[in-house]
Amino acid sequence: MGAAHSSATCLSSPATTNIPRCYLFHRVSKPSSNSSSIPTIYLHLQKPTSNFISQNHYSLKSPCSSSKIVPLSCARVRLMETQEGSASKPVIDFHGIDEELIQKMAYDALVWSSLHGLVVGDKSVQRSGKVPGVGMVHAPFALLPVAFPENHWKSACEVAPVFNELIDRVSLDGNFLQDSLSRTKKVDVFTSRLLDIHSKVLEMNKTEEIRLGLHRSDYMLDEQTKLLLHIEINTISSSFPGLSCLVSDLHRSLLKRYGEHLGLDSKRIPSNTTVNRFADALAKAWTEYNNPRAAVMVVVQPEEHNMYDQHWLCAALKEKYNVTAIRKTLAEIDKEGELLPDGTLLVGGQAIAVVYFRTGYAPTDYPSEAEWRARLLMEQSLAIKCPSISYHLAGTKKIQQELAKPNVLERFLENKEDITKLQKCFAGLWSLDDSDIVKRAIERPELFVMKPQREGGGNNIYGDDVKENLLRLQREGNEEDAAYILMQRIFPIVSPMFLVRNGICHKDHAVSELGVYSAYLRNKDKVIINDQCGYLMRTKVSSSNEGGVAAGFAVLDSMYLT
Amino acid sequence: MGAAHSSATCLSSPATTNIPRCYLFHRVSKPSSNSSSIPTIYLHLQKPTSNFISQNHYSLKSPCSSSKIVPLSCARVRLMETQEGSASKPVIDFHGIDEELIQKMAYDALVWSSLHGLVVGDKSVQRSGKVPGVGMVHAPFALLPVAFPENHWKSACEVAPVFNELIDRVSLDGNFLQDSLSRTKKVDVFTSRLLDIHSKVLEMNKTEEIRLGLHRSDYMLDEQTKLLLHIEINTISSSFPGLSCLVSDLHRSLLKRYGEHLGLDSKRIPSNTTVNRFADALAKAWTEYNNPRAAVMVVVQPEEHNMYDQHWLCAALKEKYNVTAIRKTLAEIDKEGELLPDGTLLVGGQAIAVVYFRTGYAPTDYPSEAEWRARLLMEQSLAIKCPSISYHLAGTKKIQQELAKPNVLERFLENKEDITKLQKCFAGLWSLDDSDIVKRAIERPELFVMKPQREGGGNNIYGDDVKENLLRLQREGNEEDAAYILMQRIFPIVSPMFLVRNGICHKDHAVSELGVYSAYLRNKDKVIINDQCGYLMRTKVSSSNEGGVAAGFAVLDSMYLT
User: Where is the signal peptide (chains A, B) (predicted)?
Assistant: First the structure.
């Protein structure tokens, strides 16, 4: 779980030097001087390349180790059982596809994207992150959906309401949040500030009666174990509810036209209704707030190249529910915001029913005290926060680590079946005071990643370095081990894919990550919405580097059920 | 009538120096060394500004003459009768609109354009004219529809099928086309080449049994006479069938949201179905051709920043009728094209049912012999040409001038009512051998424009210069007078408008031009389609220069019926 978020950034295209720079989707967590953020736990990091900041690169199975790895034998061994036949395999013979057909499809896909608003701002064009309608470029996308086992898709859908409920329960346990994050607080200024706000709210004895969550749980299929492993749940600013639907539509449109040639049926792409379901949830929350003159406020970054994704959601909100959304930065909210004595939040004189965050998850989103004041102001108000500070904290990686500990889920959930469902998809995650795991990692370092708790990237330890570092820590016997955690190393399936970026179609080896959107809305005891909403598939180029770590940046994708 | 065509071009934005250059829609007729083109007759020209090449600027009433002008008393006096209450007046008090509301509307409009494919290629971005999906910017648009009298709109719709029929009849009279253009042929290499192709086709005794016309008749409301005057009919490459529909949708969407504040009703924007009607006509022509394996071929410029307009039409053709369109340049057709003995046109091995031109109307479209060979090849084939060489020639300005002569329409049309309808909307147009008109023009030069027959721009004569030049020609008594024509000077209504270009909303004084799309399809004696299809409104900034001529570039607009 964590505050990592997808966004679009800009990278020099490797293809030629004179074409405009292309957009890459990646999780943003810019290192900053005052940044200390939430620990990144589930994702393997590598050093950021010159202009590519990311915390979400995936490990690539190194050729030498691939055939020898066997399932971990440890506390989590049950997760490692191979599910025969469930792994994603390419359903398309990519080598057999006619080059001319690919070019035709890519051209049609580019046209489709342009006509249907599958676009982002192009960072190489001035104002493209501020002014809509200028400097647009198609969102990067995979030309074809990624093959994905239907049973895994169903499981991920089934578990979504359980995650929703879990987040809600955890959010209500203020002491659990404060206690679990107390060590993080000491080393991470950002989490510390979030906790301060949380404390103030606790002191106010303020209850969030109406609670709205628009989450996205991210998963990867592990080739070793054939399991769908949960990477994290995003409880703040889950991106691409709009564009993900469009990519599904794009792929459906392409398969209607070319499916026969490819032996693919457009009906195998699952329906993706995230944008409408999220709009529905926002509208229903707005209705619960019960002030017809109030608006939804989207809290945005001052510059946002992924604005069209957000605009699609607001367009659905307006068109289907006639609810108006306004867009404000944290700085603007600090400047224009006020609390009425009854708790009503006014921004620029406009009453706010729902605060929907599309920023505020990273230290860089709070460059000054103004942004922190704005966050506190909203938190103190009666407006429905999506998410509240409690939901935000419940989604941090540190909390996910706590929840992965034995018998912790049982504290929040009664239903044993639900608990089993969640545990089945958790990836392995251990602290270094677990001597059995440390022993195992020294024996089989290729199955683990040693990660610093603290966010920042570039400091993950792989392969033999895991062994050496663990042995060193054992020798030294000091407190340094508390700075690390051990993670199960995920080996996603690598497949050849056609990736379209900046108007150019490349064939490359890539791995995919599934995001499952879910919405949760309750008012006191009444659960109004608790559903899976749709999905996002992101496909990333993989290339092994010296450390055996995958480098890559994502394009939007959809899935083809197998 | 003429071969002038709208396109997007690029101009440095006057607002700031560091924002990207914006797009302007104007009629393209680039002067070129071998260009001599068809005479521009109905439009008042001014010298092209540094980077603005246009032949379609409108005269702006100069303040001094405005209150004094009275209707012409001449052969066309019937056209000058004032129709009370029919002139377009602003229905919105532009001075009274809240600035904040305008900014909100402009923002929403920019978002709408981006999400709904109301886009063009941005010339300042490389590849934006070649590769779809890169370097997109919203099409320039007026923020609000232009007020337009319903009776004029109805008249223009009613006369559309008559124009369709007229073009068809004229196209069948090869001798009339050749004879009427014989003098133009001597001074205009471009027309001469078109006539050569036409002659070859005549020699072949080839009959175009299936004839498809996708036309656009352009009109302006004359403030002096309150008449809707016909400027020209485009029989080749009528642009914006796609984007014009989107602008109507945009305005409808804005009025649904803001109409109440503005006192405007979205239902007063007429339905605009051009893109579907044009797709329907192409599909029906394809059906008449009767080869299920044949495609529609869109003949395109090598670089086309207005490609999305074309893509919308092809998308409708594919989605609604499952007819595939391919895109080829004239040079590609020369390279890949062949004629089978039975007359079938193959391009790259693909049989072509319908050739739809979105290029080929200007000398610059034929930079080498290859393009002329391609044009001839297509003309010699059995493929349905939209337009055929005869339709193309029937749409030239010179032919329109001929048709405006007394008793010429009667040669082609039987129905007196139809003839009256056409004559009612023709603007005044005379050759200099009409001594009455020359006399009148010497007396009232402010009501005329003296224009060279030959295209190129910048040589129009206005005001007192008309008088002086006419007197000089009378004194000299040589043949030079044949090089000029006299035109009724049109004084379109100038209104304050909000124009949105390159993400910036400006208030400016502007004039509007109505384009009425029409489709005509017949197979031998069977008329399959003969309809008005929809409309395009283009609104241009006006500013008087020393010559009293309007400078301006157009944004897309729709109309609000009054």
Answer: none
